[in-house]
Amino acid sequence: MSALEIKNLSVRVAGNDVINDFSLTVPKGEVHALMGPNGAGKSSLAKALAGHEDYEITRGEALLDGRDIVGMEPDETARAGLFMAFQYPSEIPGVSIANFLRAALTARLPEGETLKAPAFYKELYRAMDELKIDRSFTSRPVNEGFSGGEKKRCEILQMSVLKPSFAVMDETDSGLDIDALRIVAEGVNAMRGPNIGFLVITHYQRLLNYIVPDKVHVMHEGRIVKTGGKSLALELEEKGYDWLKSELTPAEAG
Amino acid sequence: MSDPATNTPETEAPGLDFDRDIGNFHYDTKYEHDAGVGLRPETLDYIADVKGEDDWIRAFRHKALKIFESKPIPTHWASKDLEAIDYDKIRYYLSTGQRPTRSWDEVPDDVKKTFERLGIPEQERKFLAGVEAQFDSEASYSNMKEELAKQGVIFVGSTEGLMEHPEIFRKYFGKVIPAGDNKFSALNSAVFSGGSFIYVPPGVKVKQPLQAYFRINAENFGQFERTLIIADEGAEVTYMEGCTAPKFETTTLHSAVVELVALKGAKIQYITVQNWSANVFNLVTKRGMAMDDAEIKWIDCNIGSRLTMKYPGVVLRGKNSRGEVLSIALAHDGQHQDTGAKMVHAADNTTSTITSKSISIGKGRATYRGLVTMPKHLQNCKNNTECDALLINDNSCTDTYPAITVRGDGNSVQHEASVSKVSAEQIFYMMQRGLKEEQAMSLAVNGFVNDLIREFPMEYSVELKRLIELEMEGSVG
Fold it and tell me: What is the pLDDT of residues B417-430, one digit of tens each?
């Protein structure tokens, strides 16, 4: 099945179980939002999927187009087609965005093959034009001294050039002003289509005004507690996460 | 001796190749002249006899040997590893007995094979104005473009320089770095052989670089080349040196002395890419003297060797003169790169800049030593020093010893130093984009030295980047 299928996933960080028996399927072509209060395990899920060494997957599987990515190195997962937009992207001093992307694309080629520079720049400029990014942007070192908005712009540009089959947007909207929020949303919307699935992780509903999701999942204490359409996000906005918690408590007790 | 067929040279990348293993091969060579093992006054006489040197230079050698013997091994500040050098087991002079030829065809076959394998003739055709190729103690090949000779440029080996151009040679030889400067300059002064002598007449600007390639071929051998470069008033020259040696079991010593003289308004740029094998002690003294309005720039890149001790310096003797040192050092497991710079301000309005970047991998150790002096009576002197260290692993090591002496009110210095480590989050970020761990590490290192590598001539910078990538292989995990 052409989908990101997470089945009964449990994740442990520093001895704590942060994800418990989590299951979720994002078919290609759809955008799913994953919402939840702070500490629900949203970001842990993203990092565990990407193969971060601090996030130990104790149980379950995560299938990327049918291929289990659990236990893979982060670079293998990336080359298999999973892209993660970071909440806090790292700086890489002295390495230009263009050179970084070139290295990332070269890493996807068979051993011994090199990337042709003209074709690379053609593709890079296409992506930049589409995202209305100034040409001078890619000669800057990756994220070094970037504003919050510039960092997100850099993430979106990388996603556009690397063309993943699934993208996890890890609280990409946190700390963003409305203009930066639009950059992220426009980037996702421009890439939306039958060949890519999105899992948009967010604490707030406001991002979903710009990226309209096909489905909304609410996460609490490491698992999904409610799934609905885009109206669920609005309901959450109105009532707050406490409403969910109070709705859940009796059920759990029972 | 090792079978050359087992070490296939890299062929896909033309130009300069600084792959650590590119130099790791050895062809058996017959030596006509061999000073034998050990350092005695007779060793010096043997060298002087073979070369047919004048009495003054013979006396210079003997005096230097006495200085060498009287000076202690500087382990009170330098590495204790210096004690591992056994001067009685080293061979101080080895040559095939042939004068340097102007044509590769006349170079003896086994020596020619070595340089062809290192790609020297090819580089000469591509982008160099002249080449000197030294094999153990003597230059095997030395040639320069004809138009430069017509302009009066001299580019020969040091022996030829002292024989055929004594009026210039003697005036400057040993003046910037006297034999007694330090223990190893004394050693070099006693047994020196090979190296380049360059004279660029007033106003002549040599556009393409002149290059020397130093190759140690024999085991238990000491290479002691001596280079003297004089740029007359308003002249300009760029000199590049590369060096390799096969990997022997025993230690090898390379102890050079390089003196530069930039007369009024002259510019000298001296570029080194040191890629010795990991058994070589590389103890080199390099200094330039800049007269009025002159400029001396050292670009120094240390990648190989067991222990390198090298602090290129500029004595700013003339008003408005400028000195610059750009230094990159990469210390791998078992290596110690003890490098830095010296800037001695001795005239008003002089400016110096030191930029040093070191990378320590595994248990490698990088040390920066800087010396900047500005006496009280001078006005308007400036120094800017920046030294940055990058640590790759948790057990990597770096240390910095800046010695800055500034007196008087009219002078200024700036010193900035930083130590950074490639973080696990940076590596994770890069790997999430599809880079293997090694590739991510090498990209981070390349980024760290990027602004310095841009200062290198193109042919060098491309290879340097590739070499860094090779060095990073196997450095993680």
Answer: 999 998 999 999 99
Task: Catalogue the long-range contacts made by B66-69 (C-beta closer than 8 Å, 24 or more residues apart).
Answer: B67/B179, B67/B180, B67/B186, B67/B189, B68/B183, B68/B186, B68/B187, B68/B189, B68/B190
Question: Which of A75, A101, A161, A170 is most worth mutating to test chain B (most B CB atoms within 10 A of its CB)?
Answer: A75
pLDDT tens digits, B109-122: 877 888 887 778 88
Q: Which of B456, B421, B417 is nearest to B441 (CA)?
A: B421
Distances (CA, A) of B475 to A99, A100, B442: 22, 20, 9
Cβ atoms of residues A169 and A204 within 8 Å: no
3-state DSSP call for residue B90? coil
Q: Which residue has the higher pLDDT, A254 or B454?
A: B454
pLDDT value of position B10: 30
Chain A nearest CA to B440, separation (Å): 9
Which residues of chain A are at the B interface, by a Cβ-Cβ cutoff of 8 Å?
50-53, 73-75, 77-79, 83-84, 86, 89-95, 99-100, 103-105, 107-108, 141, 158, 162
Mean pLDDT (whole number) for B233-244: 91
Q: Where are the domains of chain A?
A: 3-90+164-253
Whether B195 contacts B227, CB under 8 Å: yes
Contacts of A8 (CB under 8 A, 6+ apart): A21, A22, A23, A59, A60, A61
Contacts with B258 (C-beta within 8 Å, 6 or more apart), sequence order: B177, B195, B226, B227, B228, B229, B270, B284, B285, B286, B287
Which range, of A230-244, B3-17, B109-123, averages the lowest pLDDT?
B3-17
Tokens representing B324? 């610059």
Q: pLDDT digits over A37-58, tens only?
A: 888 899 999 999 999 999 999 9
HSE (side-chain half, CA atoms, 13 Å) at B149: 9
SS (H, E, C) B394-453: CCCEEEEEEEEEECCCCCEEEEEEEEEECCHHHHHHHHHCCCCHHHHHHHHHHHHHHHHH
H or E element that contains B295: strand B295-302
User: How far B81 CA lies from chain A's nearest CA (Å)?
Assistant: 35
**What pLDDT was estimated at residue B238?**
94
What is the structure's pLDDT at A9?
96
d(CA A147, CA A151): 6
- What is the architecture of the domain spanning A3-90+164-253? 3-Layer(aba) Sandwich (3.40)
Q: Which of B423, B435, B446 sits opposite A107 (nearest CB)?
A: B435
CB contact under 8 A, B431 and A100: no
B448 touches chain A (CB under 8 A): yes
Residue B446 dihedral angles phi and psi, to the nearest 5°: -60, -40
